[in-house]
Amino acid sequence: MADVPCSRCGQTREGFERAPFPGAVGTRILGEICKDCWAQWLKQQTMLINHYGLNVMDPQARTYLTRNMDAFLFKKGDAEDVDTTKQGTVSW
User: Fold this and answer.
1) How far apart are CA 26 and CA 17, in angstroms?
2) Among 26, 35, 38, 47, whose CB has the most other CB atoms within 10 angstroms?
3) 42-89: per-residue pLDDT in tens?
4) Lowest mean pLDDT among 18-22, 31-35, 80-84
5) Distance CA 39, CA 23 (A)
6) How many CB atoms are located within 10 Å of the residue 48 CB?
7) Which residues have C-beta within 8 Å of that of residue 62, sequence separation ≥ 6?
């Protein structure tokens, strides 16, 4: 695997052998994002899915996640932050 100059963290780190996401966005990730930053995105994505109870089969949820992925990885737009200050205080 080749090292890639990561546009998110600004360091040259290990990249991917193949795109971790389909389409043009995946190609961009392949050339511009390191594995460490991708792993951080996967954690953020999981938090968003769990926090908002997103159904990833829903096209609107996928659009929401893709928009947040662009903001998170490429610093484009506003990424959604999950408010974890109330963690453990919600009762169902």
Assistant:
1) 12
2) 38
3) 999 999 999 888 999 999 999 999 999 999 999 876 666 655 555 545
4) 80-84
5) 19
6) 20
7) 56
> Cα 56 from chain centroid?
14
- CA gap 16, 38 in Å, rounded: 10
Strand partners for 4: 13
Distance CA(11)–CA(33), nearest Å, equals 10
Using left for φ > 0, alpha for ψ between -120 and 50, and beta otherwise, residue 81 falls in beta
Dihedral angle at the C-alpha atoms of 21, 2, 10, 23, nearest 10 degrees?
A: -20
Q: Are 5 and 30 in contact (CB under 8 A)?
A: no
Enter the tokens of residue 8: 């998110």
